[in-house]
Amino acid sequence: MKIITVETCYALVGLYLFVLAGRIVAESEHPRRWGSSLFWALLGVTFIGAKVLPPTFVGYLVVGMVGLAATGQVTRGATNEASRDERLGHAERLENRIFWPALLIPATAVLGTMVLGQLHIGEVWLVETKQVTLIALSLGAMLALIVAMRTTGASVGAASREGSRLLQTLGWSLILPQMLAALGGIFAKAGVGEVVAGLVTQAVPTDVPWVAVLAYCGGMALFTMVMGNAFAAFAVITGGIGLPFIVILHGGNPAIMAAIGMLSGYCGTLLTPMAANFNLVPAMLLELDDKHAVIKAQAPLALVIFAANVILMMVLVYRF
Amino acid sequence: MIKLIGVALIAAGFALRVNTLLVVLAAGLATGFAAGFSLNDIMAMIGKYFSDNRAMTLPIVLMLPVVGLLERYGLKERAEVLIRRSKAATAGRVILLYTAVRQISISLGVSIGGHAGAVRPLVAPMAEAAARRRGGELSPASVVSIRAHAAAGENIGNFFGEDIFIAVGAILLMKGFFEAQGMNVSVWAMALWGIPTAFIAFAAMWWRCRLLDRRIDRAASIDQKAGGAQ
Predict the structure, then answer these.
(1) pLDDT tens-digit readout, A167-185
(2) Segments in B4-74 forming alpha helices (H)
(3) What percent of chain A has pLDDT over 90?
(4) In percent, how much of chain B has pLDDT > 70?
(5) Is residue A129's pLDDT more than 80?
(6) Which of A95-99, B162-166, B206-210 is predicted with the least confidence, judged by mean pLDDT?
(7) Which carries the bigger pLDDT value, residue A194 or residue B148?
(8) Which of A240, B42, B99, B112 has the fewest CB neighbours in a 10 Å radius?
(9) Can you say how many angstroms the Cα of residue A111 is from the centroid of all Cα atoms in its chain?
(10) Does the pLDDT value for residue A220 go beyond 90?
């Protein structure tokens, strides 16, 4: 038995989303208070109920959220951000104490990951060991919140208000990563990967060793861009191109192929809006008007690292 | 071939700037129908994968109340005060230092940082403050560029440090793939061969950060000249 599972953390997220939905309904000046509130409440339902609700029903809830977002119902309310003078005043008063809560999050996450998974009395475990990282991170965020409220003297209401301000800044793009992951899942079930691998092997002469390397690394990067996820690309492209040509036909080293192949996939991750959690959500978090600014900053990096990967694999994979 | 319709829809939708969630939903439906699934099958898949990937959203939601609170009480402003005391600090160096910390820590299996937990409240404001200390007020374009590079540093450190540690998803996934094929490939070998790329990725980041600093300096000196001529 496990006392705290990852579902406990998801329920906590769900409860906070309900609080947010309630806050928005109470905001009489909010331009779209019913639609926005409904969006966050639906998201809360999916967080709390995912284990008990039938997946088909959750699917329709997701469609509901997409509908609200697409019709412009999900907007942000009035932002009463503290003035810069006010913040400077607090900064002068609190000095470096303001950093402690921020540093407590990673500290708890690291310690928690090492310790929490070991704690048990007989068959009763404190936390679900498989998900210990996520649970430790959630715990770190909660501890940091408590310490932050004590340090600053702010109330729970103030913390909830600041959280709701930032969540509304993100708006519907918060669920984009999960939505794209769902699309990636459908692509995988539909066999899109096999089609891509087939096209690549037809298009290029993979019976030449260095061409096989180029096709494999390129396939990893391209298919990762399509899926938004290098892990999903790995099985398909390695099964379709890497294993049959580099390893079996040309006798390449599978460890080198896999390691550098996966890293070529990551170059694709740097380039694609499909990897929303790495590329689009940060642009929203940093309040950049250009949603693709992070991808643009990463593009030269991705191309250089990709070229280096291809050369490394060509040099190493048939030598060791 | 018809199965690629979803990919085409995504490309068209992003290009035409249609609401991204709507594009993704349409691509999912089109691909599902092309592969012969029913509407309810597709809804079940969306519901299942959406639920399975709640871990992507969890850290952001749980982190934002504390990050928002700290911001209201001057976290960014304090970070700026600290950075102004350091004469050697530039935007590029701040970002590069963060990238190094992120990459080294995750290669040892320790996941700290993140876009919500570190880049927004600490790294980006510190990098901006360092640039302001050197060149005065920044143009909006410089601010965007600094922030985007801070996010890039997080991604580079995270991606290219991770594969050196054997107990993480990527290495275990590759191991599992080979086992399913009846092959035994050592996790140590796969971690080892990730190291050259890790160094190259960091070197590339170093190059981009230097370039970022030069561009900021150049923009600042142009501003000063323009200001002096008036």
Answers:
(1) 998 899 899 889 988 888 8
(2) 5-16, 20-34, 39-52, 58-72
(3) 47
(4) 95
(5) no
(6) B162-166
(7) B148
(8) B112
(9) 22
(10) yes
Q: B189-208 as b/e, with b when 16 or more CB fall inside 10 Å?
A: bbbebbebbbebbbebbeeb
Domain ranges across chain B: 2-52, 62-229
The continuous run of DSSP H or E covering A6 comes out as helix A6-26
Query: Which run of H or E residues covers position A2?
Result: strand A2-4
Q: Look at residue A295 in the predicted model and tell me its pLDDT.
A: 97
Model pLDDT, residue B229: 43
The per-residue pLDDT of chain A, averaged, comes to 89
CB B47 within 8 A of CB A74: no
What pLDDT score was predicted for residue B152?
Answer: 97
CA A158, CA A146: separation in Å to the nearest integer? 12
Nearest CB among B64, B113, B169 relative to A163 is that of B64
Least CB–CB distance from B60: residue in A162, A174, A308: A174
Q: For residues A89 and A129, what is the distance between their CA atoms, to the nearest angstrom?
A: 44
**Segments in A95-155 forming alpha helices (H):** 99-115, 132-152
Query: A318 in helix, strand or coil?
Result: coil
Angle between helices A254-271 and A209-227 (to 10 degrees): 40
- Tell me what ipTM this predicted complex has: 0.86
Nearest CA in chain A to B177: A235
State the count of interchain CB pairs (< 8 A) between A and B: 402
Task: Flag whether residue A311 sits within 8 Å of chain B, measured between CB atoms.
Answer: no
pLDDT higher than 70, residue A260: yes
Q: How far apart are CA B154 and CA B117, in angstroms?
A: 11
Q: Which residue of B has its CA nearest to A174?
A: B57
Is the pTM here over 0.80, yes or no? yes
In contact, A237 and A197? CB cutoff 8 Å: yes
In angstroms, rounded to a whole number, what is the distance separating the alpha carbons of residues A37 and B90? Answer: 42
Q: Which residues are bridge partners to A2 per DSSP? A: A125
Inter-chain residue contact B71 with A162, CB threshold 8 Å? yes
- A71: β partners: none
Q: Which residues of B touch A96 (CB under 8 A)?
A: 78, 82
Which long-range CB contacts under 8 A does B207-210 form with residues at least 24 apart?
B207/A304, B208/A297, B208/A300, B208/A301, B208/B92, B208/B149, B208/B152, B209/B91, B209/B92, B209/B93, B209/B95, B209/B96, B209/B99, B209/B149, B209/B153, B210/B92
Phi, psi values for residue A72, rounded to 5° = 75, 25
Q: Which of A198-212, A261-275, B170-184 has the highest mean pLDDT?
A: A261-275
Distance between CA A56 and CA B138 in Å, rounded? 50
Three-state DSSP class for residue B205: helix
Measured distance CA(A235)–CA(B170) in Å, rounded: 11
Integer angstrom CA distances of residue A25 from A30, A32, A161, A315 = 8, 9, 13, 62
| C-alpha distance from residue A172 to each of A93, A138, A284 (Å) | 36, 22, 11
Which class for B15: exposed (0-12), middle (13-18), buried (19 or more C-beta within 10 A)?
exposed
Which residues have C-beta within 8 Å of that of residue B167, sequence separation ≥ 6?
B109
